[in-house]
Write a structure and sequence with these properties.
The chain is of the alpha+beta class. About 60% of the residues lie in helices and about 15% in strands. A hairpin with a 2-residue loop joins strand 2 and strand 3 (about 50-55).
């Protein structure tokens, strides 16, 4: 039972992704990400500080999964 939990843990790990990580995961650059957000087609970031934002990793992973489902 412990092995199943350990195997599932990395897939469900929730963390805050900074913009560079989001760009790497999606293949999009800053301007396109912010354009998609303004259209309501990309997850909104979480404010981390005065000049810092990050995205929920689970929301980004789900967004990517949804795009891949559209392809099929």
């Amino acid at each position: 039972m412990l092995q199943n939990h350990a195997a599932a843990s990395p897939a469900t790990e929730r963390r805050i992704l900074r913009r560079a990580e989001v760009e790497a995961k999606t293949g999009f650059k800053r301007a396109h990400i912010y354009n998609l957000m303004s259209l309501g087609k990309f997850p909104k970031p979480v404010r981390l500080g005065i000049r810092a934002v990050g995205w929920d990793s689970v929301e980004i992973d789900q967004w990517i999964a949804d795009r891949l489902k559209e392809r099929v």
